[in-house]
């Protein structure tokens, strides 16, 4: 039986020679593809799917938010509450304006009362006449009215943003001082004073102030300082002494 030749001495097959042949990229194809056309015959326009045409946005349109969502975010789920802050402020004395909780009605709940950064009470007419460059307007329940309610300040006092907490602590401290000094009533029969105090208790304002003032060294120093100042103003106002903390 003859011995097989070593692999190095075995002749290569014809297929191996074809596989090893160099490939010439510049060589013309054996058959021109049917969809290949000269560069001089390029189409004048390129076709892309055209989106549906929607009318231009009009801030005064009652369907402004729906049109905004349909035009720019058609594939996202619709949640009007998240776009409510983008809605335009209602025009003065319009039906939407009259539905505002701080429209000058004959009776306004004490919880809807608004205050400026110095803790001063802002009546509806004064609040709605303040210019927006004073920094008192925000996207709250009544964006056309300047100032903050006790409930809004109580929420900001628990904000994760230190600047918002500092502003809330400082304003709440000044409100508590004016409350104790009797600017809105000195007895338990005064509805405004007791209403403000009820909003303070409902918003757990004092709990937030005590918690911030007792924060350790790892907390925000500015927040701790403003909370301490607010508690000092509350004590100096005398509300706790007069009404025994009620």
UniProtKB/TrEMBL annotation:
Organism: Ophiocordyceps unilateralis (Zombie-ant fungus)
GO BP terms: transcription by RNA polymerase II
Official protein name in the record: RPAP1 C-terminal domain-containing protein
Origin organism lineage: Eukaryota, Fungi, Dikarya, Ascomycota, Pezizomycotina
Start and end residues of each RPAP1 C-terminal domain: 113-179
Source domain of life: Eukaryota
Region (Disordered) residue spans: 1-60
């Amino acid at each position: 039986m003859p011995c097989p030749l070593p692999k190095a001495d075995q002749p290569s097959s014809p297929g191996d020679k074809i596989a090893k042949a160099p490939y010439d990229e510049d060589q013309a194809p054996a058959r021109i593809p049917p969809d290949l056309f000269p560069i001089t015959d390029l189409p004048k326009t390129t076709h892309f799917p055209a989106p549906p045409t929607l009318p231009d946005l009009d801030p005064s349109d009652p369907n402004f938010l729906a049109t905004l969502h349909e035009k720019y975010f058609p594939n996202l789920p619709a949640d009007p509450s998240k776009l409510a802050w983008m809605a335009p402020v209602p025009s003065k004395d319009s039906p939407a304006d009259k539905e505002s909780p701080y429209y000058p009605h004959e009776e306004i709940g004490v919880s809807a009362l608004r205050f400026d950064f110095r803790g001063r009470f802002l009546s509806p007419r004064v609040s709605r006449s303040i210019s927006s460059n004073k920094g008192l307007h925000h996207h709250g329940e009544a964006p056309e009215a300047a100032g903050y309610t006790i409930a809004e300040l109580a929420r900001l006092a628990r904000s994760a943003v230190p600047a918002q907490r500092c502003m809330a602590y400082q304003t709440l401290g000044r409100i508590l001082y004016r409350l104790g000094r009797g600017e809105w009533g000195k007895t338990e029969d005064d509805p405004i004073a007791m209403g403000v105090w009820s909003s303070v208790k409902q918003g757990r304002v004092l709990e937030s102030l005590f918690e911030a003032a007792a924060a350790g060294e790892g907390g925000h120093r500015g927040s701790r300082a403003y909370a301490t100042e607010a508690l000092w103003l509350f004590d100096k106002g005398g509300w706790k002494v007069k009404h025994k903390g009620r």
